[in-house]
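Handout, page 2. Input:
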Amino acid sequence: MQHAVGSPLPPPHQPGHGPATGWSPAAHHPSAPHPGASAHPAVPPGFTGAPGPHVPGPSAPHAPGQVPHAAHAQGQPPMPPAAVVPQPPQHGPGPAPASPPPDSTGHVQLPPGGPVAMPSPPQGTAPADTGATTLAVLLIGPAGAGKTSVAKYWAEHRCVPTAHISLDDVREWVRSGFADPQSGWNDHSEAQYRLARRTCGFAARNFLANGISCILDDAVFPDRPVVGLGGWKRHVGPGLLPVVLLPGLEVVLERNAERSGNRRLTDEEVARIHGRMAGWYGSGLPIIDNSQLDVPATARVLDEVLARAIASPPQW
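Output:
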């Protein structure tokens, strides 16, 4: 297995090959002596004894099954054992184990992301202050509705940290092998859409867990609730607040004509998507018709809609 970044893991240790290069058992065993240390333990203060002179003598017999030293097996005399200095009995607990060295690059502990809960409604009759509340917002609309522009402006002008997560941006992270729906909707484009939604949801949950609001934008169709709206609810959590941005068809066609690249659709495709988006009327979700509104005015209306949604969460 190979990590997403960095070098692959070292190969597993094979029997008979010896320890892995650069790995020292002493570094992982607190009782092992440091390389190069004396075989004689240090004499404690106040101890008057001293090691006596070594007297060569016959080597001790080997226990059954014990392999003799290599030098002894070749006919050379065995090395004499090192003199042992008796240690006085120690009283009380032993020294505390050495603490591991601190991480030289530093470490910031981040709370793990979890399902986003619905924000608490304000006390009394006062409207919710959306500018000081951590929120998870899903901005829905057809191509050319202005979702990305409104979401980016709304995120930039809040007094609390807020992230803008665009599904199209994440979907286009795929460079080689990108499944462009304009070339035909198939299993590959469907899989990349679902993967992008799951990635956006994972990112939103982590931002929200660390106190950063999120606004996501996506063209979610009302006739595919399990894939679209239901998928976002599973990925982010029940506290996600969906809002539909739906201007008139003429406005959508005009804005789409100003787009470029694979985000510009044909007029027929724009009209078909806009017709499907009309199914959100009667769904219970808040709808903003921004046909006559610029981006800042639409962001202000979005704040008003979110304040009502916090006070009375929509059923979806």
